[in-house]
Amino acid sequence: MSAALHLAKPQDLEKLMPLVMAFHNEMGLGTEETTLERALIPLLDGSPYGAVYLMGPARAPMGYVVLTFSWSLELGGMDGFIDEIYLRPAVRGRGIALETLHSLRKTMKSAGVMALHLEVDREDETAQKLYRRARFELRERYSLMTLML
After folding, report:
1. Which pTM does this prediction carry?
2. Most buried among 23, 96, 97, 103, using CB within 10 Å?
3. What is the pLDDT along the chain (149 residues), one digit of tens a residue?
C-alpha cells in the first residue's frame, strides 16, 4: 500500500470530512463539524498558513495530515507543525504513517521548512514509537503551553 501524499483542494472537502470527523471522534475532541469545515476551507483554498494532504489514492484517501506554518528565529526560518495526522484503523500497522512522515519531511525540506513539530499524548506509547522511528525527538527543555483566546 502506498502512502502517496496529495495536496488537498476545495473539491476534496467531501472526502476529507469523514476522515476528520473520525479522528475527532476517536480522540474524544467533540469538535462540531461546522467548526472543522470553517477551519479546513481556508487551507484547502491555498492559505499560506497551512496545508492539508490526503494519504493514499486521491479518489479514496486512507487518511490525512494537516500541517500549519510559523516562523522561528531559533530554527532559522519557517517551521511546520503537524496539527493532525490520521489513518483509517483498517490500514494501520502497515508502515503507511511512517512512510507519510518521511515523505512529508522531504517535501517540507525541499520547500525550505527548517523543522517539523508535533504534539503527542504522553500516554500514547504507540504514537511515540512511530514518531521516534520517523526521527522526531523530544525537546527536553521545552513543553508546549497554550493560552486559549
Report:
1. 0.92
2. 97
3. 567 899 999 999 999 999 999 999 999 999 999 999 999 999 999 999 999 999 999 899 999 999 999 999 999 999 999 999 999 999 999 999 999 999 999 999 999 999 999 999 889 999 999 999 999 998 888 888 888 88
C-beta neighbour count of 85 within 10 angstroms: 21
Paired with 53 in beta bridges are 7, 65
Looking only at the bridges linking them, the beta strands covering 63-72 and 77-87 are: antiparallel
Q: Which residues contact 115 (CB under 8 A, 6 or more apart)?
A: 72, 75, 79, 80
Cell of 144: 508546549
Taking the C-alpha atoms of residue 135 and residue 102, their distance in angstroms, rounded to an integer, is: 9
The partner residues of 63 in beta bridges, in order of sequence, read 55, 87
Q: Rounded CA gap, 82 and 116, in Å?
A: 7
Q: What are the helix (H) ranges across 27-114?
A: 33-44, 96-110
Show contacts of 38-47: CB within 8 Å, 24+ apart.
Answer: 40/13, 40/16, 40/66, 41/10, 41/13, 43/8, 44/8, 44/9, 44/10, 44/12, 44/13, 44/16, 45/10
